[in-house]
Amino acid sequence: MDALSQSQVDRFCYQYLQLEQALTYPEPQHLRCSDVQDAIYERLFADGALSAGPPPLRYQVRVLKELVSRVEASIEDWDEHGVSDGLMSSLSVLLSTPAPDEADAVQQKCHVVYHVASLPDHEAHITLFENRSLISAAGTTGLRTWEAALHLGQLLCQDSSIVSGKRILELGTGTGYLSILCAKYLNSTHIIASDGSDDVINNLPENFFLNQLEGSSAITPMDLKWGYALKGTEEERWNGGRPLDLVLGADITYDSSIIPDLVSTLLELFELYPHVEVIIAATQRNLQTFQVFLEKCEEEKLKVEDVSFEIPSRDQQQGPFYNDQVAIRICKVSKL
């Protein structure tokens, strides 16, 4: 397989494993080739190809039907090219498998694999067990990975000195994407993956396990509800009095009602750790909500500075993949 075919196969496979809805299929002149089809089959559809398990059945069927249709449309000479037996056999099996009720299916968690192309390790990836529907049945947005976490992660990969050797607290960790990235690939000394949702905290151990971090001293889950005093429990002082260098947060300013509690927690962290750095990423779906955050920070004498880091266009993304049409703002917050 030539380099261009390989790059198109790679991109398609990475998008499929991330359960993207809009996939970039290889171009017809590549897709008709047997080695391209065989590579896709072996990586995505062969028995045992995916160690974390296959995507939801409806997703598999939709993608494979479209793939086979595109292969058929690409063939000009059926004596020279054909459709892979492996792909056709897989499609037949999937079509004969009873599909779960759609209402139930959208509430089910599944394995999502995020390829991290900006790291030197070309196979670097993060596997997460998450709910890809907008809001889970439990009413929390923390059981899926959102764009701001992916974008902030790209910044940290580009400049790993931000987190390398640092003791970090992530607020509103959700699926744990950023915390796992820092612990597994970016050489942070220790990271606390904190959240105020019991469902989120209960989901983290599996995600640590999926990324070979089960029992690791580099990462710790923590139940942390904003607006409550940071007090010790088993240990006399919060976090045992251990040092903290950096606080991260992604998509944690989405609800104006929780912003006073969030800012209250930031203020207390600055009191405990006067030199701590705070970096927050926010998807700008609702400018008014972020304005509430800015106004509350100003009221509490917190300085908010923008960090310039552009979202790569969709056609340039090699993984992770995320929306390039919604602005994502990254800010440093400090005490005046």
UniProtKB/TrEMBL annotation:
Gene3D superfamilies: Vaccinia Virus protein VP39 (3.40.50.150). It holds the Pfam family Methyltransf_16. One of its GO terms (cellular component) is cytoplasm. It comes from the Eukaryota. SUPFAM superfamilies: S-adenosyl-L-methionine-dependent methyltransferases. It comes from Hypocrea atroviridis (strain ATCC 20476 / IMI 206040) (Trichoderma atroviride). PANTHER family: HEPATOCELLULAR CARCINOMA-ASSOCIATED ANTIGEN, PROTEIN-LYSINE N-METHYLTRANSFERASE EEF2KMT. This is FAM86 N-terminal domain-containing protein. GO terms for molecular function: S-adenosylmethionine-dependent methyltransferase activity. InterPro entries: Methyltransf_16, SAM-dependent_MTases_sf.
